[in-house]
Each structure stands twice: as structure tokens, then as C-alpha cells.
Amino acid sequence: MHSTDSSRTETRFFWPIRVYYEDTDAGGVVYYANYLRFYERARTERLRALGFEQDQIRDEFGLVFAVRSVQVEYLKPARFNDALQVTADMSDIRRASVMFEQAIVHADGNRLSEAQIRVVCLDAASFRPAPIPDHLLEQLKNVA
């Protein structure tokens, strides 16, 4: 699920998604809010590929990640049964937040959607911002 893009220094991350009937509206086109679900899956798998499970982070450190802001551009429609690739590249990594630069690309190479999604680290009990654990922060910076 990883590939290297020679124009960038980091390892690009791709997660495959198949569009199911339940993802679409009556016209067979992916409902706009479902793109957010596709982006969420790719971010979760990006962390998993780095060796971090979100439930373990909650249990061990009392921390959770939450979306703080989303900017999405819808360029072309995805349709029932399309094979897609969802990227999850990181930029602007701060002490308590990470910006994900994401895209959804059709198997034919057409870019269907682009998003910038800021995820923040929160204390699981108070839901107040909290620092990302040092070992995770260092690993995130190493791949960004």
C-alpha cells in the first residue's frame, strides 16, 4: 500500500477502497459525505502501518484523535463498484495536531477528490488538547 513518489521525499501512502452500493445515492454516485469515511479509513490505516492502533493509544496513554477541520474539493464523481486509492500523506505536524493531505484517485488515474484534514490529539477524559506522545510524534515526523 506504499509507494515512493520521486518528486517527494516521503513515502506516499495509498489505501484501496471499493465503492459499495451502500456508499451511493439513487443515481449510483457516491454520496458526498461518504468521501469523509474513505478519508478516515486511510488515516487509520496510515497509523496502523506505522505500528499504532488508535485503541491502544487510548488505553495506554489516555489519548484520542479527532478531526478539527476539513476542507474537501469534489472534482469528479465516484460510482458504484469503482476501485479507488485513497492517499494519507502528512504535513504540518505540530505538538498536538497533524495535517493530512489526502486525495481519492480512481483506478484509471483520475483524481476525484482532494482534502486537507487537521486531526488533533485530545485527552480522552477531558477532550482537551494534549501533546502527541514523543515516540509517535517522532515517527510521524520521520515519514512526513
Total DSSP E strands: 7
CATH topology: Thiol Ester Dehydrase, Chain A
Q: What is the helix fraction of residues, given as a range? A: 10-25%
**Portion in strands:** 35-45%
Rounded radius of gyration (Å): 16 Å
The low-pLDDT segments are 1-10
Query: How confident is the prediction overall: mean pLDDT?
Result: 91
- What distance separates the N and C termini? 16 Å
Taken in chain order, the helices and strands follow as EEHHEEEEEH
CATH architecture: Roll
CATH class: Alpha Beta
Largest sheet descriptor: 7 strands, antiparallel
- For CATH, the homologous superfamily is named as Hotdog Thioesterase
Structural class estimated from helices and strands: alpha+beta
Number of domains: 1
Q: Number of helical segments?
A: 3
Shape: elongated
What does this structure look like?
- This protein has 144 residues and is α+β, with helices and mostly antiparallel strands.
- The protein has one domain: Hotdog Thioesterase (Thiol Ester Dehydrase, Chain A, Roll).
- Helices cover 24% and strands 38% of the residues.
- The protein has helices at residues 34-49, 54-61, 134-143, and strands spanning 2-4, 11-18, 63-74, 83-87, 89-91, 97-106, 111-123.
- Strands 1, 2, 3, 4, 5, 6 and 7 form a 7-stranded antiparallel β-sheet that branches.
- The longest helix has 16 residues, at 34-49.
- It is elongated.
- The two termini are 16 Å apart.
